[in-house]
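pasting input
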Amino acid sequence: MHSIQIKISRFKPGIIDPPAFIAYELTPAPDWTVLDALEQIRIHQEPSLMYRRACHHASCGTCACTINGVERLACKTKLTDLKTQAITLEPLRCFQRIGDLVTVRNTLFQFMQPDWSCLQPDEKRADHDLLLGGDGRAVTKFEDCIECGCCVSACPVARKNRRFLGPAVLSAINQEKKKNPSTENDLLTLAAAPDGEALCQRALACSRVCPTGVYPARHIAELRNQRKPMGKAN
Amino acid sequence: MEKIVIIGGGIGGAIAHDLALRGFTVVVVEKGELCCGSTGRHHGLLHSGARYALHDVATAAECMVENCILRTIAPQALEQNDGLFVALDDTDMTHYAQFLLNCKAAGIPCRELSADEARSMEPELSPTIKAAVQVPDATMDAWRLAMHFFASARANGADIRPFSEVVGLLANDGIITGVDVRDHQRQTTYVEKADMVVNATGPWAGQIAALLNINLPMKPSPGVMVSMQPRLTGMVINRLHPAGEGDIVVPQRNQSILGTSAWIADDPDEVMLPADHVKQMIDLCSQMLPQLAQLPVVAAWSASRPLLVSDTEADPTKISRASEVIDHAKTDGMQGLLSVVGGKATTMRAMAKKVVDRVCAKTGREIPCTTEHTVLHHYRRFFQ
């Protein structure tokens, strides 16, 4: 592969402030991802470059950033898939920026409650007999949502209104109420609050960028459909 | 109480949690994002220990104990899905009886399954398998498990600093006094004083020790992992044979994660994948799950195991995965510096206990470890 140019939005509070684009040249191997490129730039060109990464396979969600204007995971975005030799990297929108590509997703986790389960029943394997499951524990798998924040960053409503619960939280609400019916009333009330699903304008950007196929817009539609008949009863 | 600086934001979370519970003042410094080294990028197997049964019963037994503890203290970081060891041919079957015996010796509960029973549970298994054994393996979320420890450590007062790189170790008359830290956000370098320093940087431990000209010969042993979609099985699928390459598929969310190879690298930052390893993983793992050969690759990456050069075994898949705490007062005349090497994510709580027991001994304190019974804070708490 030929040499490519990666423009990275750099930011160091009080130092590179306001943020500025700095271009880096490198000659990648054909199978490199954006994350591989970031690693190489940090190791060989810019030791102070800040970006998040952990799992390298679309499970932890840390490396989410804006790649040529679109929210993606750097770890599974191949340079060749971008079909351009000019690549621009920026942090996710809507979140507080700490440095370079790093944002803190506290606004996501402010609403995402720890007692909403990260696990879902694995219905295909409900009859598997677990070795340590003597107390009737069900076979489970993780929820698809990796809480990366891509959907929030892409949402035109969330970009303008930081109080909007946002697509990830609304999806989690919809999943949790299915798994834990005793919470349904409280969760539907939360979703129907003024900062909840009513603000969604059905742009569907969330579903388009979600890297793990959660389709948040469908969850929001389900919540909206459930709200109407309950409206006055509550 | 004494202030302990931990270098390394992987297993450092478990150490910080244990230290904080025992009342120490704790600072964790990590050069990048938390878990960006080996701890965050393994294949996500919560070991039952069965993978080590044929060659390292002691490690197998330790895994089983820790497996049960983690299910209690961090249930949200683990799928409840179990694992299978499948025998593919007559050679594998020659290990079957010994495998069961060693699992029993290690305290790992097993359920023997005929080929038909195994295939009725996991229909994607090869039609040619001979037999299978079910064990309490599980899928873990590598990031979330480690972040449970960080969330708990922080809730108990630990100061966790990502993007803070140690660029110097400070010592006076053979006693460690602190670390020089490069803050990558503020672009400044500052001194963080410490009563003791714990080097928990895994395969980077040799580079940290070298800052004081201490020779800690690490042998980073990367392994390639390949993630494919979709998920083919509920359970973790292992090959029943002496642990080797390309013999495990860990399902997670909608992915099947194939592992792994092993070689010895000079530099733990090595990110280049030997091109043939990806194909090799797919070839070998598709002997167990033929459908894998048809699936698209989501990602391929490597992670470095933190092995010590003193190991005499040449084959990195056979080197013991036990952990070791090195007291540099004894080995190098440097008081107040500990390094922890080896080990694995499944046993990170036990590794942390070993480190903190040593910190207590060095500081003359007798405070019991309580992490075994302390339910961890949810990882989301870290961000709240």
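fyi Residues 57-73 of chain B form the longest helix (17 residues).
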